[in-house]
User: Fold Integrase catalytic domain-containing protein from Austropuccinia psidii MF-1.
Amino acid sequence: MCPHVSNVQETRTFITRSLDYSSLFQFHLVLGIHYQWIYHSIATVKIFDSILVVVDRFSKMAIFIPTYGTITALDLAQIFISHVFSKHGLPVSIISDRGSLFVSSFWTQLCQQLKISRDLSTAFHPETDGQTQRVNQILEQYLWMYVSYHQDDWHTWLPPAEFAYNNADH
Assistant:
């Protein structure tokens, strides 16, 4: 074998052995809740009134989850497991606002047990989580263009909004 080729093969073997692949696949999330006003009429049954926006800081991909403004920390954990963990695994860290859901003892204990680093944004400084704030603005613009006059179908537009956002250049 040619000495040059053997050096290349040895280098290639060394590089693949020295890489820590687990760090390449860690999922970093930013969590934030965005409340959307919904038209309520007496005839309407209980309808979603909030959107949980989950953004991956690395890939910039977002998940838009319709929910209720009255959810508990336990509900949030179940939503997180159903919509985020089931598809992407556990995040390494979560940035969130200081809403009661994210500072509750249940959510704190859950993050400690799962070894997820929690970073709470500073009060009245939304730029701490600016990426999620920007996604919220884009989502609002999208919904403003497509939601019906009565604003009662916004939750049906979340999947196409998520698709459009995730397939746009960031």
About this structure: The first helix runs from residue 3 to 18. Helices lie at 3-18, 73-88, 100-103, 105-113, 130-146, 158-166.
